[in-house]
């Protein structure tokens, strides 16, 4: 297979590949040995002089004279060459058809690894790229990549070329996250190149390839917002290519434009503009005013204008660039999004807030109209969401700068929900199509959820995700096709209010929507039909302190029984933030002896500035953002009223005054209200309670021990995930972890059986036993699946799980309710994961998961909203009660029995939980139980 040094443009001429094996003079037979010439000397001479029309005629005549047998590779090779010639002549659709046929015949007759097949594949992918069909080019390049690695070696020049071509195609579809590992690997290969056969010809050529690889990686990092890493790579790309190719070579000039972009993102704008102007002048001189690179340099120079005197040039330059990109790529392409966002930011820096808002608003409308594109890995969504997040934050800031506070609130909450992969309005309304269409969309979404779980598990275990990605591509295409039937999402505003706004305004209690915004935290507080915005503390203090408190509470709970921590692994930094660490994290950090100090600080930052608007209310509904879902709001002391006392005589807490509910977004409020009203009209059973599951093979009742037979126990993927996660910090613990797993892996929870039995008696009262209790061997994933398959799972008003919980440290979709682990039924692993829960059909008012860490989320920016709580909302529940950290078995039993007794006495969920918390504090129950059980829902 022929490869050459990558050209500066994505397309490759036939002349450029004359040095390749098949397309030079010879074709290959079944054993890939040279047999007959593909072209005669006259054709080669025409190719060398660029007489492509005559080459086409000669090749067509030669193909007609060549029989299919006995050497099919000869005819296939000539058809591939003809396809390349047609592409050179601009007859792209004819070239595509010719190359598709050539590639299909090569696959059928010669196999995927044959030289002629790979040549056809390469030119087919090139034709797709010229046609802008990059989504078709990418799988062809990827298939070639695996074959090239086996044939030429993983660090060969052909592999590097394919990595670059694949990355270029991924850039064109905006999939920068998938391009990043390819560019990183390409640079690693380039660094190892030495002149020789099968490699670069000279040291200068090797340096040129290295420079181009560094430039490509810098470009990808810039688009992912990783500017600090991009700058030195961009500089190295310029230095290497200037030394090897010369200062006026197109590659060198292009590399300098990438460097200028990195300089702008680093705030070195004058330096960047000087470089852009230099490149523009040199490109005019060396390449001519009509060259694509010259036009790009002119547009970049105009777009980077920043002073008042340069504003007109900036507007014209950016406008011309946007118009060009929109025409070529479409209004909602990621590259258009990036350019539009940059323009809005520059205008905002010039205090042109109205003009900036107009640009940002138009871009927001374009992105809402664009379906998410997931090609090969759901990590590509991360890059798209990161770009959107930057635009969203900019748009909200511009709304505030233009005194549109209410619109900023509506957009903030709507986008939180969109970030959770739900529709913008939080529900599918009556105009979303027939019941059959909605059911088909839900079924497609379920398939996607379950494949995503497998992908997350494989990625967490460092396993190959390729086959799963192929399944996902098919499932995603079907889901996207069905989603296209729904009405397009709209941009919410006071003039076009979303449906959920009425539900917020009608709330009797206080409503607060928190939003991390740049370096600060904002709070939107509703006031009647209006909204007020309050600027709170800095993000750099709030977010780390929340995580420090959660991790310290977890460390206290996980300390060996009878050996409490002698000192807290908790520190206050000079910045005022708190950090969890066993040792001093930085100089002048102060060790914290009283963990309540963190709660007092959080109250001062999050509640005290809002207290005048909250005082006197009975309810508080909070729309959280990022890890604010980890804050035990009801347990925050009322620092705004330091003399106030609670019902127990201790300092008053927020929960003494207000019943608090959390939502991942206030935009869910109307959906949950509609669910509540619809569910109330249906006949449902009181309770499904699951507890007393068999976890350990060696069980203990009183002083008696016995062994539960567990024949055929096999180590499953989730078992491997749980074991590996537990020993990552100390690999020497692996044998102990495996031995523990062989005994069941989890300790039995003796209090859980008594808990579910007592709750069921309370729920049924004096009437007939209508509740269902799954205990012991029945507390299994198989039983839950059976109830789901028959539809019975959706017939319960309350669901209560008292089990173990598993908190995934990297993939929120893998956090799980842990059910029976001994004698697991075939096809089950005993882990009811968040991804699986999201596919269930619930019609419940409340789901309680009385399990360790059930409401936590260890992923960056998490806070429960991406784990079990969001999965339960997606499954159909109205509210849930989950735990932020590990909780004790016996104290949680007492807490839950009291809570359900209050529910049975007529209190609603919010008030019953508030009363139970006050009672639990008076009873001196564990602070982990009192503080850790939080309510998600209205």
TrEMBL record:
InterPro entries: CHAT_dom, NLR-like, TPR-like_helical_dom_sf, TPR_rpt
Ranges: TPR repeats: 118-151
Alphabetically ordered keywords of this record: Signal, TPR repeat
Signal peptide, first to last residue: 1-32
Start and end residues of each CHAT domain: 597-925
Record-linked PANTHER family: AAA+ ATPASE DOMAIN-CONTAINING PROTEIN-RELATED (PTHR46082:SF6), ATP/GTP-BINDING PROTEIN-RELATED (PTHR46082)
Protein name: Tetratricopeptide repeat protein
């Amino acid at each position: 297979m022929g490869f050459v040094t990558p050209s500066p443009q994505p397309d490759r001429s036939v002349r450029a590949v004359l040095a390749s094996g098949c397309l030079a003079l010879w074709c290959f037979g079944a054993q890939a040995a040279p047999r007959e010439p593909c072209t005669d000397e006259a054709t080669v001479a025409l190719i060398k002089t660029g007489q492509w029309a005559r080459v086409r005629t000669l090749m067509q005549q030669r193909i007609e004279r060549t029989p299919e047998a006995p050497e099919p590779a000869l005819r296939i090779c000539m058809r591939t060459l003809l396809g390349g010639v047609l592409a050179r002549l601009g007859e792209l659709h004819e070239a595509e058809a010719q190359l598709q046929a050539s590639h299909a015949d090569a696959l059928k007759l010669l196999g995927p690894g044959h030289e002629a097949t790979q040549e056809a594949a390469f030119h087919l992918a090139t034709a797709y790229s010229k046609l802008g069909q990059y989504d078709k080019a990418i799988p062809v390049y990827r298939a070639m990549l695996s074959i090239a690695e086996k044939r030429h070696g993983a660090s060969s020049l052909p592999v590097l070329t394919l990595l670059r071509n694949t990355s270029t195609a991924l850039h064109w579809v905006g999939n920068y996250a998938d391009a990043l590992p390819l560019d990183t690997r390409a640079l690693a290969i380039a660094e190892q190149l030495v002149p020789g056969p099968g490699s670069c010809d000279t040291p200068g050529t090797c340096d040129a390839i290295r420079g181009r690889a560094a430039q490509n990686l810098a470009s990808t990092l810039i688009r992912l917002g990783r500017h600090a890493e991009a700058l030195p790579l961009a500089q190295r790309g310029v230095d290497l290519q200037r030394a090897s190719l010369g200062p006026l070579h197109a590659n060198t000039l292009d590399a300098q434009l990438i460097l200028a972009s990195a300089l702008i993102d680093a705030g070195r704008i004058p330096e960047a503009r000087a470089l852009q102007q230099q490149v523009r002048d040199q490109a005019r001189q060396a390449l001519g005013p009509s060259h694509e690179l010259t036009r790009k340099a002119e547009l970049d120079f105009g777009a980077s204008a920043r002073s008042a005197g340069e504003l007109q040039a900036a507007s014209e330059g950016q406008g011309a660039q946007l118009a060009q990109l929109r025409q070529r790529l479409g209004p909602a392409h990621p590259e258009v999004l990036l350019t539009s966002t940059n323009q809005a930011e520059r205008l905002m820096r010039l205090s042109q807030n109205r003009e900036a808002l107009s640009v940002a608003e138009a871009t927001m409308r374009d992105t809402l109209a664009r379906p998410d594109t997931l090609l090969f890995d759901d990590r590509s969504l991360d890059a798209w969401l990161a770009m959107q997040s930057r635009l969203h934050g900019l748009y909200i800031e511009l709304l505030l700068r233009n005194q549109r506070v209410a619109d900023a609130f509506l957009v903030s909450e709507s986008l939180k929900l969109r970030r959770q992969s739900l529709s913008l309005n939080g529900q599918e309304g009556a105009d979303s199509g027939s019941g059959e269409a909605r059911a088909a969309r839900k079924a497609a979404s379920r398939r996607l959820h379950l494949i995503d779980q497998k992908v997350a598990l494989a990625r967490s275990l460092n396993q190959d995700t390729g086959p799963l990605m192929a399944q996902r591509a098919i499932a995603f295409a079907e889901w996207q096709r069905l989603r296209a039937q729904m009405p397009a999402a709209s941009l919410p505003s006071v003039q076009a209010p979303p449906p959920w706004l009425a539900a917020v305004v009608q709330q009797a209690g206080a409503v607060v929507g928190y939003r991390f915004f740049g370096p600060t935290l904002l709070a939107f507080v509703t006031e009647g039909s209006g909204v007020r915005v309050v600027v709170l503390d800095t993000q750099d203090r709030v977010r780390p302190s929340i995580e420090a408190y959660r991790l310290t509470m977890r460390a206290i709970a996980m300390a060996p029984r009878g050996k409490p921590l002698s000192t807290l692994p908790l520190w206050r930094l000079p910045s005022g933030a708190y950090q969890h660490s066993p040792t001093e994290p930085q100089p002048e950090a102060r060790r914290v002896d009283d963990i309540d100090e963190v709660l007092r600080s959080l109250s001062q930052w999050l509640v005290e500035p809002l207290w005048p608007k909250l005082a006197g209310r009975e309810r508080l509904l909070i729309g959280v953002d990022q890890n604010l879902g980890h804050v035990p709001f009801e347990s925050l002391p009322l620092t705004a009223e330091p003399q106030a006392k609670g019902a127990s005589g201790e300092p008053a807490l927020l929960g003494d005054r207000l019943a608090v509910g959390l939502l991942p977004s206030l935009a869910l409020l109307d959906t949950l209200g509609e669910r509540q009203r619809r569910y109330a009209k249906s006949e449902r059973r009181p309770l499904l309670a699951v507890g007393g599951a068999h976890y350990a093979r060696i069980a203990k009742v009183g002083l008696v021990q016995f062994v539960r037979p567990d024949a055929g126990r096999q180590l499953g993927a989730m078992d491997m995930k749980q074991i590996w996660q537990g020993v990552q910090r100390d690999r020497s613990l692996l044998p102990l972890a495996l031995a523990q797993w062989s005994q069941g892996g989890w300790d039995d929870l003796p209090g859980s059986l008594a808990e579910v039995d007592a709750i069921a008696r309370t729920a049924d009262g004096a009437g007939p036993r209508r509740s269902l209790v799954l205990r012991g061997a029945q507390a299994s994933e198989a039983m839950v699946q059976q109830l789901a398959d028959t539809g019975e799972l959706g017939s319960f008003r309350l669901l209560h799980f008292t089990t173990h919980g598993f908190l995934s440290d990297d993939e929120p979709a893998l956090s799980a309710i842990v059910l029976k682990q001994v004698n697991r039924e075939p096809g089950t692993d005993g882990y009811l994961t968040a991804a699986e829960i999201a596919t269930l059909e619930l019609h419940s008012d409340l789901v309680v998961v009385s399990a360790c860490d059930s409401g936590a989320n260890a992923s960056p920016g998490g806070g429960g909203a991406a784990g079990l709580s969001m999965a339960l909302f997606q499954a159909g529940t109205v509210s849930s009660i989950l735990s932020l950290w590990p909780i004790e078995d016996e104290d949680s039993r007492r807490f839950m029995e009291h809570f359900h007794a209050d529910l049975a006495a007529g209190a609603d969920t919010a008030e019953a939980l508030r009363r139970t918390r006050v009672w639990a504090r008076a009873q001196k129950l564990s602070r982990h139980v009192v503080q850790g059980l939080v309510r998600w829902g209205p």
